[in-house]
Amino acid sequence: MTNKPKSKILVSACLYGHCCKYDGTNNLLRDKTFQILKNTGRLIPVCPEELGGLSTPRVPSEIKEGRVYNKEGDDVTAQFELGAEKALEIARKNGVRVAIMKQGSPSCGCKRIYDGTFTGTKITGEGITVRKLIENGIPVFDETEANLAKLLADGDPHNHHH
Questions:
Q1: Nearest CA to 130 among 90, 95, 101?
Q2: Which residues of 123-147 are buried (b: 16+ CB within 10 A; e: fewer)?
């Protein structure tokens, strides 16, 4: 039996510990499974918002009616879409099969996102990058599901049923 190299996992850079959140901080994930993945070099950190050309720190953004606006009312959809494209490119280049993304983010949220009113109200929905990954066959988990993501990444690529 050959010991195949384990597949890489795309991850929001803020969870990895990079200070790339809109306010210049991070969301370092201390989850044990996540730390093991990190220490074994299996995580590929991306910040779609930085990849799309937005600065850190930056004005917070939320999705409204399919477009992304920052709190000052500027339409930043183009930057978010560019960041999503670049994140997907990085995922493909690294043979990524699974992603772990930061819940609530307008790029990385995979179940809940803010509703566009900047009142802290969350609704069901997906961030721009997450939607792009899912459309391209890469399942996305949030930061509470590192163990599930690892299981899927470790599984046989020719043998996963939904």
A1: 101
A2: eebbbbbbbbbeeeebbbbbbebbe
pTM score over 0.90: yes
Burial class (CB in 10 A: 0-12, 13-18, 19+), 7: middle
For helices 32-39 and 146-154, the axis angle rounded to 10 degrees is 50
Q: Give me the sign of the Cα torsion angle 46, 155, 132, 74.
A: negative
SS3 2: coil
> Which pLDDT tens digit goes with each residue over 69-83?
999 999 999 999 999
Quick check: 87 and 52 in contact, CB under 8 A? no
Residue given tokens 């917070």 in the structure block: 60
DSSP per position, 72-130: TS-B-HHHHHHHHHHHHHHHHHTT--EEEE-TB-TTT-SSEEE-SSSSS-EEE---HHH
Radius of gyration of the chain (CA): 15
* CB-CB contact of 133 with 90 (8 Å): no
